[in-house]
Design goal:
43% of the residues lie in helices and 17% in strands. With 690 residues, it is an alpha+beta fold. The radius of gyration is 31 Å and the shape is globular.
Length: 690
């Protein structure tokens, strides 16, 4: 017991180094409500920081960590099961291949109980095990304990038996500063000893604040992808300009302003205003989505996880494809266009505005499916739907505004535009094939959400191959659609695109062949997850690798092979960890580094295997809260906090075999180039200095 006490004091002292890196985004308040008739309610209310969420107990298996709330005591008898309170959210997770259920902002847990003997007091112990995540990282699962004594009226108060614990205070701070010398003397060096030895919690040589080198890596900021959607919208707008509904109107509209006005300068100004109004109208189309989001903040996450919504999008996209193929037209009611056209007669700015609105309305049969694709992509796959839609629609309108504005300023450029003709219908048909391919994404997502898993990764790829072959033979003139010429002229551009389509078919075929390393990285996030496959086997490990799950065994291997160690603080329920493994680790220029140049130590902070009884303990956090150290996961979680001042996952650290941090650790889901730079920085430094 003497050694155990020493270990606790050592741990408490080490936690003085914990600062803002140790995240604690949820605060709990424990209370007991008297319900009458000898019944009570143990209530635990949690308040979460903005952007963080806590999983519900109803989360599906093999996803996140479900919250568990237990109430116990010698003189109490539970009534039913605990209930959760607060606004429950559901969201589809690409990484887990299923729906996750969670609470944000606040979460509550209630458990009813009654006293076995209403004449005696009762010590009530409430324990919660939970995990918190945001869009980038998941924190290690945490277990807290709360204690309260209730004394019924007329009962004789008794002193509750207190379990001996070491006082840690707020944020695991120590109560005695005089332990500093003792901790420094007892901190352990890196040696190959048992991974369950408590004295190995702190590694003497590790100092994350003083890496051996640094290459500009560090904490990753959240990427909201706004500029990506602006770019995609801009490209969509340019493509829409080439369709039969819009392209013929370009010279007519520009000529109206440049030749229809006696004052040419005024005509050019009006044309620029016209372009601005086009941009404004497309941006205004996103306003309803902001209003909906303000009324029901999580509605887009909720509808994106709906099986029926994704099936509906699948049907809509098939419908869009049929329109692009020329079997029917999708138009708004003619009365809307007529009213807008009539309002143009007002003249001035109002008239120009309605001219722009009329263009948007009458071109809907071509632009509608493209805008629908942007809408579907944002609603079913992104976090901040309204803002992403605003950027996408702004990009779409910006493309039109720039084209109309530049042509108004330089009307002579109209002469260089290609003449209208059958090529415009070819553009529409190509878009039809694109819509068919995108439609399958929504059907696949419905399949993943419902966990039927009918559409395996290989089946998805095979269907895309068929669509790509159809596009290729169309471009070479072997098949035609209703609005195509009977004897279409196969232009050089069409042949080039056809060859590219054939190349895409060849690219897709490799995805049907089993391989140790995942292929089709360009389509990651579109294809079903790697584990939804006819060839997947749990014994295959992570991308063919079998990382060590014990830090000290990894040290032994690293010393023998003379390689640096990549510590991967991860979790079985960590969504961002799975995303990194599938979308970043699998990259062709990342995987060889992981396989050949480092020793991978994946330490699971949610590992449920229990520690030996003599190594289990509790740390008093104050305010009736106690931190339990019961499992291997608890141990690796504290190992991460004590040595690296961080408690988020994924968290990556490169160290030498003798325990020195090579470069600045990185956390969270990040783009490939940042992770590659982190790896190459550390590996190259080690190779040049070993």
């Amino acid at each position: 017991m003497k050694f155990r006490s020493w270990f606790l004091f050592m741990l408490l002292f080490l936690m003085t180094a914990v600062n803002a890196q140790i995240k604690n985004p949820v605060k709990f308040r424990f209370s007991i409500n008297e319900l009458g008739d000898n019944q009570y309610e143990a209530v635990l209310d949690g308040t979460l920081e903005k952007g963080w969420h806590i999983y519900s107990r109803d989360i599906p298996e093999d996803t996140g960590i479900p919250t568990e709330y237990k109430v116990s005591g010698k003189n109490i008898e539970l009534i039913g099961k605990f209930v959760e309170t607060g606004k429950k959210h559901t969201e589809f997770s690409e990484a887990f291949g299923g729906t996750i259920v969670y609470y944000s902002n606040s979460a509550g847990f209630k458990q009813k109980f009654k006293l076995k003997d209403g004449t005696k007091p009762a010590d009530v112990v409430a324990e919660i095990m939970y995990q918190t995540c945001d869009d980038r990282v998941c924190l290690a699962p945490n277990t807290l304990e709360f204690n309260k004594t209730i004394t019924p009226k007329g009962a004789t108060a008794e002193t509750a038996t207190e379990e001996k614990t070491e006082k840690a205070g707020d944020s695991l701070a120590p109560i005695v500063d005089t332990l500093e010398t003792e901790v420094k003397q007892t901190a352990a060096p890196v040696t190959a000893t048992s991974s369950l030895d408590p004295k190995q919690l702190k590694i003497e040589s590790i100092d994350f604040k003083k890496p051996l080198t640094d290459c500009g890596t560090g904490e990753t900021k959240v990427d909201e992808n706004y500029w990506t959607y602006l770019f995609l919208g801009f490209i969509g707008g340019l493509i829409a300009l080439l369709t039969p509904c819009v392209f013929p109107m370009i010279p007519l509209t520009v000529s109206f302003f440049t030749k229809g006005s006696k004052d040419k300068a005024k005509g050019k100004r009006d044309a620029l205003v016209y372009g601005f109004f086009i941009l404004l109208i497309f941006v205004l189309l996103s306003v309803p989505f902001h209003l909906i989001d303000g009324i029901a903040g999580n509605i887009f996450n909720e509808i994106s996880t709906s099986v029926w919504l994704n099936i509906a999008f699948f049907i809509i996209f098939i419908f869009f494809a049929g329109s692009f193929f020329g079997y029917y037209d999708i138009t708004l009611p003619s009365s809307i266009a007529n009213k807008s056209s009539k309002a143009e007669e007002a003249g001035g700015l109002i008239g120009i505005f309605f001219m722009a609105l009329t263009l948007v309305i009458v071109s809907f049969s071509c632009t509608g499916p493209i805008l629908g694709s942007l809408l579907g992509s944002a609603v079913t796959g992104s976090a901040n739907v309204p803002m992403l839609l605003t950027f996408a629609l702004a990009g779409f309108g910006l493309a039109w505004a720039i084209v109309f504005g530049l042509l108004a300023l330089f009307p002579q450029a109209l002469q260089s535009l290609p003449k209208s003709g059958g090529w415009m219908n070819t553009v529409k048909v190509v878009l039809g094939f694109v819509e068919l391919a995108l439609a399958l994404k929504f059907l696949s997502k419905a399949d993943l959400v419902s966990k039927t898993f009918f559409i395996k990764r290989e089946l998805f790829i095979a269907i895309w191959i068929i669509v790509a072959i159809g596009l290729t033979i169309y471009l070479f003139g072997l098949i035609r659609f209703p609005h195509d010429d009977k004897k279409p002229k196969i232009s050089l551009t069409r042949k080039i695109i056809g060859v590219l389509g054939l190349g895409f078919v060849i690219y897709l075929i490799q995805g049907l062949i089993p391989a140790e390393r995942p292929k089709l990285q360009l389509l990651s996030g579109i294809l079903p997850p790697l584990n939804v496959s006819y060839f997947h086997d749990e014994k295959d490990g992570i991308l063919g690798m079998h990382p060590e799950h014990d830090f000290f065994k990894a040290v032994e291997i690293a010393k023998k092979e003379n390689k640096p160690i990549l510590i991967d603080f991860t979790g079985y329920g960590c969504e961002n960890c799975r995303k990194m493994e599938e979308f970043v680790w699998s990259e062709a220029d990342i995987l060889p580094i992981l396989q050949n140049d480092i020793v991978l130590a994946s330490l699971y902070v949610d590992d449920k295997e229990e520690l030996p009884e003599d190594q289990k303990t509790k740390i008093d956090l104050g305010d009736g809260q106690m931190k339990k150290v019961q499992t291997i996961g608890d141990r690796w979680s504290l190992f991460q906090q004590v040595n690296f001042n961080n408690n988020s996952q994924p968290h990556y650290v490169l160290i030498t075999p003798d325990g020195k941090v090579i470069n600045t650790p990185v956390s969270g889901y990040m783009e490939k180039e940042k992770f590659k730079k982190f790896l190459e920085c550390g590996v190259n430094f080690y190779k040049n200095n070993k």
